[in-house]
Amino acid sequence: MSRISVVTGGTRGIGAATAIALKDRGDTVVAVYGYNEERAKVFTAETGIASYRWDVSNFDACLTGIASVEADLGPVDILINNAGITRDGTVHKMDCENWQAVIDTNLGSCFNMSRAVIGGMRERKFGRIVNVGSINGQAGQYGQVNYAAAKSGIHGFTKALAQEGAAQGITVNAIAPGYIDTDMVAAVPDRVLDKIIERIPVGRLGKASEIARAIRFLTDDDAGFITGSTLSINGGQHMY
Ligand code: NDP
C-alpha cells in the first residue's frame, strides 16, 4: 500500500535523504521547507518529490499546509518532524530571539505538525511519526542551551505522544543523530569539527542516508510494535 509521507525540512540534508528513501519505498512524499526556495526547486526537479513551503514554527501555517497537502494528495499517514535550526551562543550572551526561534522551530514544530495530522491518524487507526532529536539533546553541548533544551524536549514529547497513540495504531519514535555531514555541520568551524571527529569512535561524520534508512525502518507498516523509542545513531560517540 502506498503511504503519504510528509518530511519537514525535506529539501536538504537529513530530510532530503529521508524523503528520497521513503519515495524509493513507494510512498508519495511531500518535502516541507521554510525559506530556501531555490534549493527546493532543484530538489523537486531532481527527485520528482513535491515541495511545499511553510514555517513549521507557526501553528496556523502547519494546519493550513497540511490541509492543502491532504486536498492535493489525500490523508497523511507518516510524519517526519525533521526541520531544525541552530542559533548557538552561551547563555550570558544569548538573546530571547535566538532562544525562542530554536525552541519554536525544533520543538514547537513537533506539536504544530503532529496536531495537524493526529486526528486523521486516530480516525484511520494508522500513523507513523518520527521526531529528529539530537545527541546534543541527550548529552548537552557548550553554547547550545536552546538547541539542547529543544532536542531534549523532543525525546520527552515522543514518549508521551507514543502513549497517546499506542492503542490507535500510531507509533511515535525519535532518532538522535550524532554529527552528520550536512549544511548544518558545514557551518561548524573546521578546528571545532576536527575536535568533534576525534571523539567519534568510528572516525568520521555520519551520512544523511544513514539516518534516512533508520527513519524508513521505523515507518514501515510492519514496525507497529516499535513505539516510544529513541534510536541513537552517532558512530559510538554517546551511548545512552
Ligand atoms: P539542514 O540545515 O541541512 O536543513 C534543515 C532543513 O529544515 C531545511 O530543509 C530547512 O528549510 C528546514 N527548516 C528550517 N527551519 C524551518 C522552518 N521554520 N519551517 C520549515 N522548514 C524549516 O539540517 P540537517 O539536515 O543537518 O538537520 C536535520 C535535523 O536533524 C534537524 O532537526 C537537526 O537539528 C537534526 N540534527 C542534525 C545533526 C547534524 O549533524 N546535521 C545532528 C543531530 C540532529 P530551508 O531549506 O528552507 O532553510
Would you mind describing this structure in some detail?
The chain is α/β, with parallel strands linked by helices and 240 residues long. Helices cover 49% and strands 15% of the residues. The protein has 9 helices and 7 strands. It has helices at 13-25, 37-47, 59-73, 96-124, 135-139, 145-165, 183-186, 190-198, 208-218; strands at residues 4-8, 28-33, 50-53, 78-81, 127-132, 170-177, 230-233. It has a 7-stranded parallel beta sheet with strand order 3-2-1-4-5-6-7, sandwiched between helices. It is globular, with a radius of gyration of 17 Å. The relative contact order is 0.15. NADPH dihydro-nicotinamide-adenine-dinucleotide phosphate is lined by residues 8-9, 11-15, 32-36, 39, 55-57, 82-85, 105-106, 132, 134, 177, 179-180, 182-185.
Could you tell me which ligands this complex binds, including any ions or cofactors? Answer: NADPH dihydro-nicotinamide-adenine-dinucleotide phosphate
Structural class given helices, strands, pairing?
alpha/beta
Tally of strands: 7
Write down the overall geometry.
globular
Give the uncertain stretches in residue-range form: none
Radius of gyration: 17 Å
Helix content: 40-55%
Number of distinct helices: 9
Strand order of the largest sheet: 3-2-1-4-5-6-7
> What do the pLDDT scores average to?
97
Strand-residue proportion: 15-25%
